[in-house]
């Protein structure tokens, strides 16, 4: 089911604004789709990546330990 959620979440038909921010000290990558809004729901996947939702639409992704994932 989480795989279905991820596939649904990553299907983006239109993005008005894409914001990518990297916190080097915490080694966390933040990706926001559209203007920043507080999420009403979130889901942590098996790989510790967090999907953030508002009204059933994905608003952002948080990727912890980003540098380690690049290796």
Textual characterization of the structure:
The protein is an alpha+beta fold. The protein contains two helices and five strands, in the order αβββββα. The protein has helices spanning 2-9, 66-70; strands at 18-23, 28-33, 41-44, 50-54, 57-64. A five-stranded antiparallel beta sheet has the order 1-2-5-4-3, with no helix packed on it. β4 and β5 (57-64) form a beta hairpin. The chain is globular, with a radius of gyration of 12 Å. It starts with a helix and ends with a helix. The model has no long low-confidence stretch (mean pLDDT 84).
Q: Percent range for helical residues?
A: 10-25%
Major β-sheet strand ordering: 1-2-5-4-3
SSE order, one letter for each helix or strand: HEEEEEH
Low-confidence parts: none
Count of helical segments? 2
Radius of gyration: 12 Å
Largest sheet: 5 strands, antiparallel
Please describe the structure with a list of short key phrases separated by commas or semicolons.
71 residues, alpha+beta, 5-stranded antiparallel beta sheet, 18% helix, globular
């Amino acid at each position: 089911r989480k795989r279905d959620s991820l596939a649904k979440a990553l299907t983006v038909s239109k993005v008005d604004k894409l914001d990518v921010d990297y916190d080097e000290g915490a080694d966390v990558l933040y990706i926001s789709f559209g203007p920043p809004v507080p999420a009403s729901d979130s889901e942590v996947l098996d790989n510790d990546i967090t999907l953030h939702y508002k009204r059933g639409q994905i608003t952002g992704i948080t990727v912890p330990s980003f540098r380690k994932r690049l290796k």
